[in-house]
């Protein structure tokens, strides 16, 4: 993820804890296989029951974390799996699926910015052709690492045998690096990454034919389209069709601007289409840090230019729903929010300071950090451990839980997107399994809007972040809804018609599925500034 913008800092704000989820028992929470959270568990804190309890209460179905090569291979002939064994076992025993990131490089396998031996054949017979009975080439250390990791943690692998697990219990999703198109993350070339992905695919599939190999989450922070560039390399590879173009799925990352979550999903889909390919697309990092809550820079409330790229806690909650709605509308499969707690953000472990209102920002001292978390850090955290209400949820936690409950637990299909000139956005999803239509609505202006949604039934469920109730249509068959205004966030590079990146608090309307297509329903909706006469 991107480093936080450097800020100049002074203001005081009274903090209040958000209420916890209404029912935080794991049995009561839906388990969404379309929603995940980054870093539910940590390799340094792999058995923390509170982290699991909170994630279960929110309804997450997936966890995502890096499996660092340099941590599990401290010396050329030595493997050290104990810490990751605990982490994997904790996740799986609590029912989470795992998106594991193959990442890192031991110093003894360093070749400048590259991984030593990566261009050597993947297999010990001197070829890149997988076949039963083959083993990885010792001259290609990355191939050996992938082989060892997959064989240890796959269903039926070494850890499963040690623990006596059922045949289906293990890791199946393997992501190849994190943000390879972000220079601080990947120092090699695009061709180097194409080779990394190819070797991973060939070796992982030989170790576990049911493994799913993911193109590492792309940040798209530059004009360069790494996915297209890698595909352009593979198009000249005679093995590409036989081996599924060396990828089963593609991941993207989107921060701070909800609209971009949908746009990047569409961009990846169209890039794949250009090569005649279809792959699941995961948005496996999305989020926005808050400035109005410790460890964020609370004192910048009256300095708009100094909080660009940050949000209020209320805006962060709106972001959660809007980012997911945009991404799902454009065909994303699974969405991960970054992150469960603030943890250490982008800062080194141990970065800490007491709660303050700007007075510590002297002499280059660390005085603020990333507040991405759905929950605030507890007192025991190694970073940012001085929140006045430690371990409590932010409003974004309730937004995630609402997503899991309404949209995350049962499959749905994108039905329509409508962007109104008056400043509202509406996205409709049809859920055939339950015969329901779900509308996600929000305001992109600084004035309240009245939204008249054509009704196909005599009542609907209306959800906000604070309330749930039944609504009935007016005599002329419209649900009359008030969309609260957005607040300024000073985000640059907005799309035409947007005055702020994050819209106002969203509404979710669920009614029985009618016969009229969603696009026709939304085309008949009427949007006006609040109080405006017909």
Tell me what the structure shows:
This protein starts with 31 loop residues before the first strand and ends in a 5-residue tail after the last strand. With 534 residues, it is α/β, with parallel strands linked by helices. The strands form 4 sheets. Strands 1-2-3-6-7-8-9-10 form an 8-stranded parallel β-barrel, surrounded by 6 helices. Strands 11-12-13-18-15-16 form a 6-stranded antiparallel β-sheet, sandwiched between helices. A 3-stranded antiparallel β-sheet has the order 17-14-19. It contains 11 helices and 19 strands. It has 2 domains: 31-399, Glycosidases (TIM Barrel), CATH 3.20.20.80; 411-529, Immunoglobulin-like (Sandwich). 48% of the residues are buried.
Q: TL;DR of this structure?
A:
By secondary structure, this protein is an alpha/beta fold.
């Amino acid at each position: 993820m991107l480093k936080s913008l450097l800020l100049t800092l002074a203001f005081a704000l009274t903090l209040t804890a958000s209420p916890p989820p209404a029912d935080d028992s794991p049995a009561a929470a839906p388990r969404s296989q379309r929603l995940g959270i980054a870093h539910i568990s940590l390799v340094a804190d792999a058995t923390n029951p509170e982290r699991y309890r909170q994630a279960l209460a929110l309804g997450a179905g997936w966890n995502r974390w890096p499996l660092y090569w340099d941590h599990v291979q401290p010396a050329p002939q030595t493997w050290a799996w104990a810490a990751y064994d605990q982490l994997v076992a904790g996740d799986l025993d609590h029912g989470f699926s795992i998106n594991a990131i193959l990442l890192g490089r031991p110093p003894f396998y360093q070749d400048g910015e590259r991984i030593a031996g990566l261009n050597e054949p993947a297999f010990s017979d001197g070829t890149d052709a997988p076949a039963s009975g083959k083993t990885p080439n010792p001259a290609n250390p990355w191939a050996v690492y992938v082989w060892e990791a997959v064989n240890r943690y796959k269903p039926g692998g070494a850890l499963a045998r040690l623990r006596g697990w059922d045949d289906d219990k293990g890791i199946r999703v393997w992501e190849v690096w994190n943000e390879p198109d972000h220079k601080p993350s990947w120092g090699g070339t695009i061709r180097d990454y194409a080779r990394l992905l190819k070797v991973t695919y060939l070796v992982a599939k030989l170790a576990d034919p049911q493994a799913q190999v993911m193109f590492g989450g792309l940040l798209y922070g530059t004009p360069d389209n790494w996915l297209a560039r890698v595909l352009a390399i593979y198009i000249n590879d005679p093995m590409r069709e036989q081996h599924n173009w060396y990828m089963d799925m593609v991941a993207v990352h989107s921060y701070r601007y909800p609209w971009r979550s949908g746009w990047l999903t569409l961009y990846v889909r169209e890039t794949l289409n250009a090569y005649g390919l279809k792959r699941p697309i995961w948005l496996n990092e999305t989020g926005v840090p808050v400035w109005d809550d410790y460890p964020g820079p609370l004192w910048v409330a009256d300095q708009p230019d100094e909080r660009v790229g940050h949000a209020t806690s209320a805006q962060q909650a709106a972001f959660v729903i809007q980012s997911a709605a945009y991404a799902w509308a454009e065909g994303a499969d699974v969405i991960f929010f970054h992150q469960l707690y603030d943890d250490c953000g982008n800062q080194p472990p141990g970065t800490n300071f007491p709660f303050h209102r700007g007075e510590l920002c002297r002499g280059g001292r660390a005085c603020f950090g990333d507040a991405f978390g759905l929950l605030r850090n507890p007192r025991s955290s190694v970073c940012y451990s001085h929140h006045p209400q430690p371990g409590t949820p932010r409003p974004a936690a309730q937004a995630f839980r609402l997503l899991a409950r309404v949209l995350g637990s049962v499959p749905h299909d994108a039905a329509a997107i409508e962007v109104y000139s008056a400043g509202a956005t509406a996205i409709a999803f049809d859920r055939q399994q339950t015969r329901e239509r779900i509308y996600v609505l929000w305001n992109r202006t600084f004035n309240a809007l009245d939204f008249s949604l054509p009704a196909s039934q005599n009542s609907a469920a209306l959800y906000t972040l604070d309330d749930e109730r039944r609504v009935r249509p007016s005599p002329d068959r419209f649900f009359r809804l008030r969309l609260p205004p957005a607040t300024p966030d000073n985000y640059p590079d907005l799309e035409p018609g947007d005055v702020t990146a994050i819209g106002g608090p969203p509404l979710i309307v669920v009614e029985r599925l009618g016969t009229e297509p969603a696009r026709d329903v939304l085309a008949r909706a009427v949007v006006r500034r609040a109080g405006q006469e017909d």
